[in-house]
Amino acid sequence: MGDVLQVIQSAVVLLAAPLYAGVLSRAEAVVQCKRGPSVLQPYLDLRKLLRKGSATSDQASWIFHAAPFVAFACYLTVSAIVPIITDEPLPLAFLADLIGGAFVLSLASFAISLAALDTASPLGGLGASRTTWLGSFAEPALILVFFTVGALSRSDNPYLENHAIAHSGAAYVLPTHLLGAVAFFMLVLAENGRIPIDNPSGTIEISMIEESRVLEYSGREYALVKWGSWMKLFLLSAIFMNVFVIPWGLGDATSLAGGLLGILALFGKLAVCGLLIVIIDSSFAKLRFFRIAEYLGAAFLLALIGIATSYVLGT
Amino acid sequence: MTTLTLPPAVVESLSASSPEGVLLDIAAVLILLCAFACLGSKLFDRYVIYYGAQSILLSFAAAVVALHQHDAGLWALAVLTFAIKGIGIPYGTRHFLIDRFALKRDVALSTGLSSSLIFGAFLTAFAFLAIRPGTVSSGLVAEAVLPISTAVILLGALCMVVRRHTIAQLIGWLIIENGVFLGAIATVATFPFIVEAGVFLDLVAAVLIMIAFVSGLARQLAEASAPELRQLSE
Prior knowledge:
The structure holds two protein chains of two kinds. Chain A is built from eleven helices and no strands. Chain A has helices spanning 2-31, 41-51, 62-81, 98-118, 122-153, 158-166, 169-172, 175-191, 219-245, 256-283, 292-313. Helices cover 74% and strands 0% of the residues of chain B. In chain B, helix 2 (19-39) runs parallel beside helix 6 and helix 5 runs antiparallel to helix 6 (142-162). Chain B is globular, with a radius of gyration of 19 Å. The chains are: A mainly alpha, B mainly alpha. The A-B interface holds A 170, 173-175, 178-179, 293-294, 297-298, 301-302, 304-305, 308-309, 311-314 and B 16-17, 22, 25-26, 29, 32-33, 36, 40, 113-114, 117-118, 121, 124-125, 128, 131, 133, 138, 143-144, 147-148.
């Protein structure tokens, strides 16, 4: 049964990620009193892009063509190892722990950055440099968030963290956990280029970060890149909800029905997370580039205080 | 209750896993974050907002302890904290100082915001290391709250050191006072009410004097900083 659920879990991430992105942009438009695109728009975009051919620079090497596939494979790998629909580890979950998952996500980002540098377009280089700069601040904070997880569950396995806080109200309200959760959410926004860091719908080349790395892509490869970034948003939101905020409601890993119920619960949780993201997107402005360090420093600080508290409480 | 033995202090009775302990714990962490927010901000308005939020959280913490101890004096203290520190002082500072002098952005900083935040994080870590587990017996809420209150005191002091504007230093000093108060209610809730009330009156008087003093001074020079005074004499 585990194998079937394993496939279902990755399929859910693969197929529902565009829907999540579509719902987010629709909700954002509604909040701003606009009609907005249909929630199915990402699927239509994908269909259109997948049918088109690619136009690539004649300076591009194989790296440029391989990067979208590497990144896409990385996101698929992560979808197999984190708790998305079941609360017990599925067969492939022991491939990696949280830190391993973060490595795989960094690998995807690294591949895209390489591809951005590969075509030697100035905007690609700009985007790659900015993302790397941002990553050098985000990674230490992410590692500290994993330490807060470790302080609570004595492991760096997302499933054990989920169990530790789902089964004990006292652990859930510990400052260590709450601060770690807030810090992780700030990092989710930063990793996905949401509003305080980057404008996801931005089309102004000079100020964009994530999007400028993939400007050179078109057609099928662009579809993969877009799909990958939606999967990343979906995955990180699901981890945030399942491991940090609502650890309950995951299906059990022994029955198909449990897994399917888990999918429904997951959609409910993602609705909550999406609402949070939409509220933040429409009520804050994009930070000036050099203030992003302060934003990520704040996430670092929250996680650090969380760890300090746990050190004293001896949990 | 007519015996002369001291009533049990909160450290003796409030465990970290009880509901009150958890509430006190979270309130203390939020108070610490307010201190950090103040340290990391550059606008006078924000200083006052964060100080007010911190004081309201403090009054909440005092109410939690009062609920646990069934102590009328502590209840009065919580209400007084809310009224004076949570509303009165922020309103007074904003109305009489910030609005009147049209203060917006604090430019008189000795270091950048990021470096002062990093230094603040080091001070917090130092506070947690200095109040080692074992200073208070383990499993009690004071074990976490005492280091946090020490950290708040240090952060308030850092605010005063880093900022050179008198009003910003006033806020730093008020944060120190909040830290002392947090430590007091978490460890010795049996502090006589009259002493606490006296401290309150001192505080209000001090703020009033500060307001009068700054009002007179601020027109000529906005900062009361020793290096600047030394420059004048040369």
